[in-house]
Specification:
The protein is built from eleven helices and eleven strands. It is an alpha/beta fold and about 300 residues long. The protein has two domains: about 170 residues, Rossmann fold; about 120 residues, N-(1-d-carboxylethyl)-l-norvaline Dehydrogenase, domain 2 (Orthogonal Bundle), CATH 1.10.1040. Strand 10, helix 5 and strand 11 form a beta-alpha-beta unit. Helix 6 packs across helix 11 and helix 10 packs across helix 11. The protein is globular. The two termini are about 25 Å apart.
Length: about 300
């Protein structure tokens, strides 16, 4: 495959958004997934962003053998699908290639590195959202940035992402951004999923707003114990600001629950609980919402 080629693992909202923008920037995109209806729609209609009449061709497949030799991969599957993605990548990622995880939650890079090796894995944090309106059709959920850790193999991929219209930064302390996003995600996502409301509605419900603050403070306390310095003084205020800025968004966890699919709760609030336990901290609100979201039945077809 030529240098302007990217393999995207996943066919969901963010995978579709990145595919559409990158394809519009003349990057050849292969999307590797397991959702039959999604793959069929992508092959037939391409990828589209709501409000733009254009459709862009991508190669959609469920066969990793069709992706052999790829140098650059974006991992945009759900956190609970990362181990499968790692095994798929092991058969198609070039020895000098790199897989960039832009997923939610903690630990995805570690799972990838177990199979691919540390030199072939890089991390990033994104602060934009998207909603899948139909297979291959995505709605942007607000502007944001793509922050990447420094990695010797990332420069060409960074340039392609930038060319696709994303704001891209290389940062010296990605861990701070990872935990900043976790503090916000652990506060907003489970509550929207449990209450079936958009982000902004959490601010209109006094009890939900109070719980959001408790969740953010608990997560920030774990980060502090681990030596992570967050870039904001008040995690609850930051969570409220994000909820206000993304008021009309359905969180990714709410989208999962509404379609009856598994959620990323284990990689978000579950990760906070596990790390708190390892450091003798109490995070009762995170533990409660973790248990409640895990109790929601899984019924629907899984889109990946």
């Amino acid at each position: 495959m030529n240098s302007d080629s990217i393999l995207i693992l996943g066919t969901g909202a963010l995978a579709t958004l990145f595919a559409a923008r990158l394809a519009a920037a003349d990057v050849f995109i292969t999307m590797l997934g397991t959702w039959p209806e999604g793959l069929a729609a992508l092959s037939e209609k391409g990828v589209r962003v709501d409000g733009d009449d254009r459709a862009f061709h991508v190669h959609a497949t469920d066969n990793p053998a069709e992706c052999k030799g790829i140098r650059f991969a974006l991992v945009l599957v759900k956190a609970w699908q990362t181990e499968r993605a790692a095994h798929q990548l092991s058969g198609c990622l070039a020895e000098d290639g790199v897989a960039l995880t832009l997923q939610n939650g903690l630990g995805n890079d570690t799972v990838l590195a177990w199979t691919l090796g540390l030199p072939r894995v890089a991390r990033g944090v994104i602060t934009l959202g998207a909603t899948l309106l139909a297979p291959g059709l995505v709605c942007l959920g607000g502007v944001g940035t793509v922050s990447l850790e420094s990695h010797p193999r990332l420069s060409p991929l960074k340039e392609m992402i930038h060319r696709a219209g994303f704001v891209v930064n290389v940062v010296s302390d990605l861990q701070s951004l990872v935990w900043s996003k976790l503090a916000v995600s652990s506060a907003i996502n489970p509550l929207t999923a449990l209450l079936r409301v958009k982000n902004g509605e959490l601010l209109e419900l006094p009890s939900a707003r109070a719980l959001m603050g408790e969740l953010a403070r608990e997560t920030a306390a774990v980060a502090k114990t681990l030596g992570v310095v967050l870039p904001f003084p008040g995690p609850e205020l930051t969570a409220e600001e994000v909820a206000q800025r993304t008021a009309e968004n359905q969180s990714s966890m709410l989208q999962d629950v509404l379609r009856g699919a598994p959620t990323e709760i284990d990689a978000i609030n579950g990760a906070v609980v596990r790390l708190a336990e390892e450091n003798n901290l109490k995070v009762p609100v995170n533990r409660t919402v973790w248990s409640l979201v895990k109790a929601i039945p899984v019924r629907g077809k899984i889109k990946t």
